[in-house]
Predict the structure.
Amino acid sequence: MGEAGYVYRGDGLTWNRELSTILSDRTVISAWGASPDNAYFVGRVADVQHTLIDTTADTPYYAYWDEPILENYNGVTFSAVGLTGVKWGLYDVWGSASDDIFVVGYDGTIIHFNGTTWSTEFTGGTTPVWFSSVWGSSDSSVFAAGSNGALLHYDGADWSVLTTHTAEDLWDVWGLSDTSVYLAGPAAQLSDTTAPSSSA
């Protein structure tokens, strides 16, 4: 994965570039697959020009921001997934199964796929500005990490805010179980956390 819409696939011995139809102006940042014929790729289209209107002078002016990429690969072809209400780049994707997939990104965005439809859990947020990583130990224990030490936990029904004791950006979250979860950030920062107790 990377810039210019590149996607590579490994067969256990070598990596080969797939004939991706993801356009060359798109950066693919993360991938997750339920099977060889059902994989999802997320990323961004950088610095897309948008025409805005100056209401005081009725003169067009321009703003630039990233737009989201969400593509599904069925083992043969890539197809774009239509999203409603999501305007900014997407940074990570993880799922517990083909009918339970989470995607996170800029603008405090978290979206979820239930096997039929994609729904927006959060977007338009300023705290945190973005989520960079999502990982779970199961469908009832999912973590989303992001800017300024932000960390959320999903228990299968609701999201809750966890305390990380840092204001540094968190770039990645991964674990062995919901009681052994690691967070990575700048300045060689590495910390661990656990999911909230179900009895709390």
Observations:
- DSSP finds no helices and 17 strands in the chain.
- The domain at 3-193 is CATH 2.130.10.10 (Methylamine Dehydrogenase; Chain H).
- The first strand starts at residue 8 and ends at 10.
